[in-house]
Amino acid sequence: MVGTLFDKIWERHVVVPQRSDTPAVLYVDLHLVHEVTSPQAFSELRRRGLPVRRPDRTIATMDHSTPTLAGRAEKLFEMADAAAFSQLEALSRNCAEFGIRLFDLRSERQGIVHVIGPELGLTQPGATIVCGDSHTSTHGAFGALAFGIGTSEVGHVLATQCLLQRKPRTFEVRVDGALRPGVGAKDVILALIAEIGVDGGTGSVFEYTGSAIRSLGMEGRMTICNMSIEGGARAGLIAPDDETFAYLAGRPFAPRGAAWDRAVAIWRGLVTDEGATYDRRVTLDAGRLEPMVTYGTNPGMGIPISAAVPAPGSVPTLDRATHEKALRYMALEPGKPIVGHPIDVVFIGSCTNSRISDLREAASLLAGRRVLEGVRMLVVPGSQAIKRQAEAEGLDRIFVEAGAEWREAGCSMCIAMNGDQLSPGQYAISTSNRNFEGRQGRGGRTFLASPLTAVASAISGRVSDPRPLMETQR
Questions:
Q1: Which residues have CB under 8 Å from 311's CB, separation 6+?
Q2: Pairwise CA distance, residues 374 & 312, whole Å
Q3: Does the pTM exceed 0.85?
Q4: Which of these, 376, 351, 356, 391, lies nearest to 454 by C-alpha position?
């Protein structure tokens, strides 16, 4: 029987099949835990006298509420607000009590949950992976079925290692052709979401295919899968290939020796069969894409950087009232170019764009240049391992000498709950994944973009196309 990549993973993990009146019971291979969505779940286990079913398949890290200032492990009480400190302390206690491995602020493996999973080799093809975080879809870049769950579901998985789920539909996103200089993975996913809207993938799992996807390295693939949820999808998948296997080989939790050979033999079968059908398809031409930037208050409000701000009523995936409200919040005028709009803050980081390739790309454009006076730029690596690698390569010096702040690993300004945030009315160019009202600080206004666009904007102090600066480097 032919099937899609999604079908194969789903069927291998069904414990109890779905019926008309009940969802399926799905087995979970890996449960990732952090400090924000887990306290209530652990409290429920404690109340009911339940242990964690599979502590060996559960990994925790501190990331969302963690300050990113130097010395945070020693001065956490002083740096974190009361809520953040309480969450971090609770995670430490809960992991100790229930026997869960925790990468805390003193661990050399600490980092953003969706960054450390892949870099440690915990994320593997064919696995089911869940976490109490929307961007768990990141792990789909490895051919894993990965999705976010709510706090009550976190408790369910801790107790049973299973989850109730209804089977999603399949949705092929095919991206063919070659990306032009200055255009990368972030621009691909923003272009997709702009085309289909934030609810275009509702009830579906994206499978990304095509020559442009295959040409991406693993970190670019993670960027694309990371934002699948922003297009309404339950998850995003890319079939594993030699690029995947090369990335995983030798990672701390990856199989070794004969076990590695057996695993790769199985992983090579994780592809959509010829003749298998999807419930829906959409195609993008990579060669026609430009650097993208958002202008509104959801990730679907994106445009090519050369375009003007659209007028309400002109975007098929947006209703007029939502569009008008977004433009009022962003204080933008329809018909005016997005390029040249002043900015106050630049953020490079998050589970979308904080990996070593993102930092190398940003540093390559910033080297020998300066962040415009009056603009604040934060560069936040996604993990301690990435931070060490960047420092070994001298990337931190490039950022600091240009006038940027080099921080400790964490979610940082992606979400305003750790001390890194915008002030009311400030504009930010951000490599993160969400531009909702107040997401980066009450009254803050966010333009989502790639690391290259973020750096070009930091240098000019305005929303800027990175391609002219890239031309001068040739």
A1: 334, 335
A2: 33
A3: yes
A4: 376
